[in-house]
Amino acid sequence: MIAIIGGGGAGLMAGGFLSSFGQSVTIFDGNEKCGKKIYITGKGRCNLTNACSAEEYLNNVVRGQKFMMGAIRRFSPQDTIDFFENNGLKTKIERGARVFPLSDKASDVTKTLLKTCKDCNIRLNEKVESVVFDKTTNKFILTTSKCIMHFDKVIVATGGKSYSLTGSTGDGYKFARMFGHNIIKPCGALCAIEIKDKFASSIMGLPLKNVELKCKFDGKRKSLFGEMMFTDKGITGPIVLSMSSFINRSENVELAVDFKPALSEEELETRILRDFSVNQNKNLTYILRGLLPKNFVPVFLNKAGLDGEKKVNSVTASERKIIVSTLKNFELSFSKLYPLDSGIVTSGGVDLKEINPKSMESKLQKGLYFIVEVLDIDCGVFLCKINN
Ligand SMILES: Cc1cc2nc3c(=O)[nH]c(=O)nc-3n(C[C@H](O)[C@H](O)[C@H](O)COP(=O)(O)OP(=O)(O)OC[C@H]3O[C@@H](n4cnc5c(N)ncnc54)[C@H](O)[C@@H]3O)c2cc1C
Fold first, then answer.
1. Does the C-beta of 110 come closer than 6 Å to ligand 1?
2. What residue numbers bound the domain in which 333 lies?
């Protein structure tokens, strides 16, 4: 008798496999339906996996890469695709090798998973409150919101602590602690970033395309190329969300945007000199509108301390250098990540040192397992190109 706590993607997948091997499986979920989070994944379309090799997949894992190596090599992204296809879900591959259901409906993913769980006893609206191991009977005692039940093995698939309205409220950490597990402080991953600069709200929603977000943290450097945008109090968009996964455990973070990553400082200066020479009677604002989104120009001028009305024929060499260096290194003042609940993924969780990567079994309690987001793993940044 196996209990699975949580009927999200992880719990359903485990339930389907175990029941197909003849195991008696009971899945508990506090919600009125299973897979509530799956419905909102991939903007309602669910990006199932990526059509890539196991190695490529692992290269994009931000935390827990070594821990996941065996699991991903044994069950590769292609195995995930085959699993869904073999269970009747047609899939398609889109830009960035992202795999989606052909129907574009995340709900079809949940339906497919539920189909594999047809032999499981699924108990909805039933929250597990505690898990205790009884040494005299060698059984786990689960106290739920409705009753007390006994099991030989327990799989904790309760998810992380973000998007808590979908049911992932961090209960798995509580159960893990009951068995002496260490919990790495949960924090948001794939999360927007708050900045101290007051101008953000004035250009909220403004997209910056083909820029490079550069970051220094804990003596490391990371830069990501792609698209970002400003929010009421910070920045978001693909490269920002991806960057958050690298910096979410650091206090001292330096952020800067390179608006012209394809050009060196010298090349950019040459380009600006050319612009100046053909527009000698125009002002700086006019020139900068050719280099930046129109609405960003006042913010840029303010940061560079330059007068947008100044005619380009009176711009000095040192002012030109300031323009170049500000375009190549527009500093943003990091404040913190947006709250954990808004993270697409929770980073942190059950300490991987205490889990057997071959079986996901606790090293502290035989018969107790932890799977997927409740663990201290963060698997995935396919949203943009990582430069270093
Ligand atoms: C907006 C958004 C978009 C995303 N898009 C994608 C995407 O396109 N592709 C992708 O791979 N990932 C995506 N993710 C991430 C992905 O959804 C999660 O990583 C994944 O759902 C984790 O699965 P899980 O089963 O571990 O946890 P969850 O899906 O969170 O499931 C945990 C389940 O446990 C239940 N539960 C918790 N505590 C208890 C308890 N005490 N008793 C009973 N039940 C309990 C909850 O009700 C819940 O159903 C996205 C996430 C978000 C928020």
1. no
2. 192-337
